[in-house]
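Input for the complex:
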Amino acid sequence: MSDRYLDFANTGVGGWLTGALGLPRPAPLKRRADAGAGLTGPLLLGPGGDSRLTPVLTRLAAENGREVQTEWSPDVRYGGLVFDASACVDALSAQALYRFFHQAVRSVAEHGRILVIGLPPETMADAEGEAIQRGLEGFVRSLAKEARRSIGVHLVYVEPGAEAAAETTLSFLLSPRSAYVSGQPILVSTPVTEAMDETEHAGRRVLVTGGSRGIGEAIVRLFVAEGARVTALDVPGAQQALASLSAELGVDVLTLDITAPDAIPALLADARAKGGYDVVIHNAGVTRDRTLARMEPREWDSVIAVNLTAPLAMTQALVEGGEMRRNGRIIAVSSLSGIAGNMGQTNYALSKAGWIGAVRRLAPRLASQGITVNAVAPGFIETQMTAAIPFAIREAGRRMNSMGQGGHPVDVAETIAWMADARSGGVNGQVVRVCGQSLLGA
Amino acid sequence: MSDRYLDFANTGVGGWLTGALGLPRPAPLKRRADAGAGLTGPLLLGPGGDSRLTPVLTRLAAENGREVQTEWSPDVRYGGLVFDASACVDALSAQALYRFFHQAVRSVAEHGRILVIGLPPETMADAEGEAIQRGLEGFVRSLAKEARRSIGVHLVYVEPGAEAAAETTLSFLLSPRSAYVSGQPILVSTPVTEAMDETEHAGRRVLVTGGSRGIGEAIVRLFVAEGARVTALDVPGAQQALASLSAELGVDVLTLDITAPDAIPALLADARAKGGYDVVIHNAGVTRDRTLARMEPREWDSVIAVNLTAPLAMTQALVEGGEMRRNGRIIAVSSLSGIAGNMGQTNYALSKAGWIGAVRRLAPRLASQGITVNAVAPGFIETQMTAAIPFAIREAGRRMNSMGQGGHPVDVAETIAWMADARSGGVNGQVVRVCGQSLLGA
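Predicted:
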């Protein structure tokens, strides 16, 4: 689970050696728990501070003890650069995008952030406008590959009128919580519920499947720390791990094989006893990797049942049974394999790509009930599972991304927590990669 | 422009050496012009031959002197496997997908093809159906990575009622014309015009921008060979190359800087003189690679003008001027960089991602005029441009795909010719990568 190369490359001797040999020297990312994490300088807002997001950004900067500046200065190290490209409707107006970043891009501090704000391309008046706004994605993905390895670069399409709803998204992307997310386009649309004066997670009922270890455990720990009332669900075989989590954190546990015939009644009974769930996180997943010619029927079936059909049936039962509360959140853990495919994972990739389809279907349908549906797609995350991968393949997986390292389970948990936030009603139908901008894709 | 490693690895000594050293040994792909190209065995159609595409596939097989079989036999080497997954609406029915390929996948001949037919996910009755149909994409992309390096694997979503319109697409994918395309999902929808008894390209008026060399020249040559009446457009600096193409092939030439102030009137005058165009291929493109901090304003501007805004303006002028004929085709050359972003290409990636937005906008709007709008996104194609890339980077680009080699300009031209086919009215709004299933993406 430890990345010894990263550790070594950041020692004195290791730094000298990697430099002399021309080897990559990834910078350790700063997460929420790390010393010195957070905005390390002011936000520079372009063009000329003229943005519909100015009120939100000013508030966010102030919460971080920073200010928003609108004139670039060569003497300042900025914690973040934010460019509102909403006025880029043709090639001429898009020159402002070039001018701003051409000048400012080298002024971002280590661990800083770069954000481009756009309008949903399909809302533009003509083909050139749609092309430029859609083109921002190519721009941002390229800039994310050019930026230093600790700097995340993002594109946020904010629907007209959804500016206030963008606060949790901008806050997440400008914070160390998004350390391992980069190069992602994210849409913020009109929230599914009226903005309520709610705290992020405190007191919310959260169900985490596969919650006993790995990414699931990280999710449980994060939501507990945020004051949520968490139920960790896992299979009977994980009972001991669940019990010690419960003893340590005081979480509820639910021992259940979600593919069992009586899983749905048991889940509903539990949900009913708790007065329903605010947040359901479908994290439980299995792999049974084998090329298709060698794959056993049960390897095919179990992966699809655990990863796709059981959580879909759970979702349906909870929603139709009235056990998803208003302003609810359903979040699935998809995968880079579901996007790009992967050798030996026809079953897994089908199940994980399947969730992309399920999100697309469920998000607009459940919006009327005030529920959002989203997914995260992790790339290479350092867990017991990846620790078992042979060295050379593991090294390739770790280094083939813009951060030059694997992510941590907490990076996935932080991304889920942003989507789950009670104030994130404008984040709906999104599939966001947590992969350090892995080179892999489709 | 030659891939010496590929050539060497396929000699006797080279084959022994690469085997002994565990190096990749990519197979030379078979294109239309190569001896022995084409279906080398029968088509196996699953499940049990029960498919709405049976009539089309039977006709295609017969044209290739092959038959369609519906029962797998261990003794047959199939030229192609086709599985109609239209009945896969839940996990249970999707087991048929596993059973078919588990048994048959090793029976595909070298240079064979694997096709999965699906229904557009959003047309399914429920979330599980949409998830399974969308999940096919993960399945197909994984299988494409497992298949031998000469075998293309594809997913074709055929809208109900558009089965007859799928003929050109299935024909392309089952033929050597698609040698360097793999792992792509393609939608065939209701054609934009009534199916007409037209030949593919003969007699059609085709404009190819950037037509004097590289990919553009390959496009010109292919359309000329197909009997189209081609106009090759290029900048004044390419006049000599244009003249010799004209002398050799008898094509019309149009010497024009498409970004010049008088470009549109000149284009319209030419189009009017020819009675309008059936097919316009926006291939002209430039790169001015530099990290954003070092990029000059003119490097930003020229890339966006040549690659995006000039061809958009040309499209608008031709359509509004009535110079695009009914059953017309507009095809842009996008790029893998527009999908994934690329270091040093913020300008280029914006322009190429921009075309993805333009296709999305224009395809539904021009459908009512009987015109389709599509794009190809080439990956690593062996040209003078790629020959100039430093060796190590070039090698990485060449090998990091399921075919283990770079594509040829003709591979891009063939993909464009399929989209441009007068009978391809059901192919609209598509962006298809020509990249040998490059690992790179987003």
